[in-house]
Amino acid sequence: MAVIPGKNRENEDDIERLPLVLERLKITDSKKLLVLDLNGLLVHTFTRSKKVQIPNSRSPDGTIGRKVVFKRPFCDEFLRFCFQRFDVGIWSSAQKFLQDQSDCTNTGMKTIEDRHKPLFLKELKKIWDNQSCDLPWSKGRYTSSNTLLIDDSPYKSLLNPPNSVIFPSPYAVEHVDDDGLGLGGELRVFLDGLAEAEDIPSYVASHPFGQPAITDADPNWDFYSEIIHAFSNDQ
What we know:
The protein is α/β, with parallel strands linked by helices. The chain has one domain (about 10-40, about 70-230): HAD superfamily/HAD-like (Rossmann fold, 3-Layer(aba) Sandwich). The protein has helices at about 10-15, 75-85, 125-130, 185-195, 200-205, 220-230; strands spanning about 35, 45, 60-65, 65-70, 85-90, 105-110, 120, 145-150, 165. Strand 3 (about 60-65) and strand 4 form a beta hairpin. It is globular.
């Protein structure tokens, strides 16, 4: 998954251009698995053509193809914290990056927010069943009881079990006072408790965090329920 370099040289070049502090994934017998999104959680990436108000104090930390990359404040500290407390993977729905778009489920639909943006799903079952030759563990090592996905897009988790994902509000470079990843920040505090919890679903259920999951109370439930019905039948 995330922190193991791929065999594709182009992937490695992309990683080298992104100055994140990542260590090799360390698999243990007791740590829970933390699966992190990239854009909107650790960084903000966008093409220069987008009208983004970049603070005068910021300059890009790197590039990926035609996109500029701005690391979120305290990103490096946060990753070091995560590697100390958890087994860690990074799963992005961007192309050619770590556990990437090819590992997502393509619904063939577009998101409600952007009619040009493909709607991809991140199915944790693919991790639990070890459906990738690059994942350094056997099937059954991780389950819904010891895995947490963190992603800022609730729709990507339509097929995952309840309380296996949290959805922080998306980070953008305009958020100059953001400290969510820092010591004492809300996400760090949440994860400190999670690391000590007996199981992840119970902890998530009793510690609501970020955006709500998509349920039948969502105003766009008819749209999302069609996706759930169509792709649940493929399980």
